[in-house]
Amino acid sequence: MKLARDQATLAKITALIEYAFQKKQPLKTDPVFLARYEHADAYGAYQADELTNLIMANQFTIQYFSKSLKMAGVGYVASYPEYRGQGTIAKLMDELLHDLYENGVAVSQLAPFSEAFYRQFGYENTSQKKNYQIPASAFAHFKSERQGFVKRGTWRQLEKPIKAIYQNLLPGQVGTLIREDWWWERLAAYYPDRFYAVAFDDEKRAVGYLIYRMQGATLVLDELAYQNDFAVRKLLTYVKAHTSSFEEVVYSGPAQVLLENYFGEQQELAITLRPYMMSRIIDIKQVLQALPLQQKVIVEVTEDKQCPWNVGSWLVDQRTCQKVKCAGDVQGSIQSLSELLLGGLTLAEAVFLGKVKVTKQFAGDSFPKGQQSFYDYF
Question: What is the pLDDT of residue 363?
Fold first, then answer.
């Protein structure tokens, strides 16, 4: 059931989270936790007077090509150990997904503790992180950018250009959070030891930013955002200026990042690609209406246990979508279609892997792929 928003319930919620996630500090008075709690809906189950199971969902907005969609970020899925495995979380997920649909939410995202667990609720991997381990010595083979300049400062000093750059990069992306002010402020408070730098070109235009931390012998790049090639080179030049103090630089960025191409000896870099977030479509009609398709297509959802309103065939034509009574040109479960429409999986790859079926020939890959710059975690 949806939980009340009062101090007694908050005490039970924080007690469960502290136990399940082994939090060392109390959360009831933690402003970072409360910032998220105050913007969330909590669902839980009781045994007698004890809150035994919990799900929290924050409602955000994400970029989906040229449109924005309401998204629920699911987190703090928790149960006391003696109440696990009883199907209670599954019942709470069913209730949550129904309520989200009623509130006009199109998509849900989460960071899984178990991919198999969340697949039973229609979620699938849709975002990846490309992880770089760059030894300091590799920067000897990086050509420094001499034009423009970098300004280093606090969050308050550089908040305006950082937000503007982030916003400018959103069009064409898929799944990236359209960050509200409260979320920016929470990030700054959650990572109080982070540093900020903004790259400017010779015309004094802000073209990129870097958010980073210093951890022992490692320089950690949390966010590296740039509007052009110059911004990449200028920010990497700024990172290079730190290498006399660090043994390595680590960075986890979007899958499409190509930082290796800026180094003369790429073999010195260790690069891995790993799954990050999972997503599921809650309202297929909203997603299909926002999809910039170049041709008419019928998409058929063959299975969706939690959101049965999605099941059926949907005719998509010039940013319109309506339900029809005929077989789909592209057929798949909501899980497979979530990966196809929200992730980097192409139609050809989905067919090859047996995730979807097609009943007609398409000119090229009819489902466009947008970039994703996903640094947020919930």
Answer: 65
Q: pLDDT value at position 33?
A: 97
Distance CA(109)–CA(41), nearest Å, equals 15
Encode burial over 138-152: b for 16+ CB neighbours within 10 A, e otherwise. Answer: bbeebeebeebebbe
Tokens of 29: 């008075």
Beta pairing, strands 218-226 & 124-125: unpaired
Q: How many angstroms separate the Cα of 29 from the Cα of each of 78, 142, 188?
A: 20, 47, 18
pLDDT, residue 364, reads: 65
Between CA 166 and CA 290 the distance in angstroms is: 21
DSSP 148-214: SEEEEE-HHHHHHHHHHHHHHT-TTBEEEE---HHHHHHHHHH-TT-EEEEEE-TT--EEEEEEEEE
Q: Which long-range contacts (CB under 8 A, 24 or more apart) does 257-263 make?
A: 257/130, 257/224, 259/132, 259/134, 259/232, 260/132, 262/142, 262/232, 262/233, 262/236, 263/134, 263/138, 263/139, 263/141, 263/142
Is residue 165 within 8 A of residue 227, CB to CB? The reply is yes
| DSSP H/E element including 14 | helix 7-20
The Cα 121–Cα 356 span in angstroms is 18
Residue 244 has a CB neighbour count (10 Å cut-off) of: 8
Residue 330: which H helix or E strand, with range? strand 330-332
Give the model's pLDDT for residue 362: 76
Q: Residue 56: which of 19, 108, 121 has the closest Cα?
A: 108
Closest C-alpha to 344, from 95, 129, 103, 90: 129
Contacts (Cβ under 8 Å, ≥6 apart) of 356: 330, 331, 332, 336, 337, 340, 347, 350
Low-confidence spans in the chain with pLDDT less than 50: none
